[in-house]
Amino acid sequence: MLLQEAFNKEIFPALKAKLGLKNSMLVPKLTKIVVNVTTGDVLVNPKLLDTIAVELGMITCQKPALTKSKKSIAQFKLRENVNIGAMVTLRGSRMYDFYNRLINVAVPRTRDFKGFSKRSFDGNGNYTLGITEQIIFPEILPEKVDKIRGMNITFCTNASSDDHARELLVALGFPFRS
Hints:
The radius of gyration is 18 Å and the shape is globular. A 5-stranded antiparallel β-sheet has the order 2-3-1-5-4. It has helices spanning 3-19, 48-60, 92-106, 162-171; strands at 30-38, 65-68, 83-90, 127-131, 151-157. The relative contact order is 0.20. By secondary structure, it is an alpha+beta fold.
């Protein structure tokens, strides 16, 4: 069974009962997943951005959008409106497919993995984690990678508090540190 179907049929009612919510609109749901890759090496070699975009596209199965710098910073030799990274916003079935691949395939391939921190919530029910290597995803061939790059992954929920968002992620099988 797909994760989205499992959420709608099993996890959603169980979460509603566990949190003691009477209105089903208050039950927390995953609304989107944002994957972001940014590197300072792009300032020296702008062609790296094409490689980053291709790798991110293979990981997420969606074409990434290029991100631009918001302001100039002289110490970093950064100008305003220069492409410095790529990002993808996943919603719907692609979001659940990516979540499933991340938790069940990619994360177990991480060396010395002990779980993710429970303290990375932002106060509004969103959780952000950093991955240091893109090669944990099976879509990326390690022999074709020129440099190991990390990424930030943000799980956005409609939860009213961090506790409700944590319960949602636990119900979806998120590996928190114990």
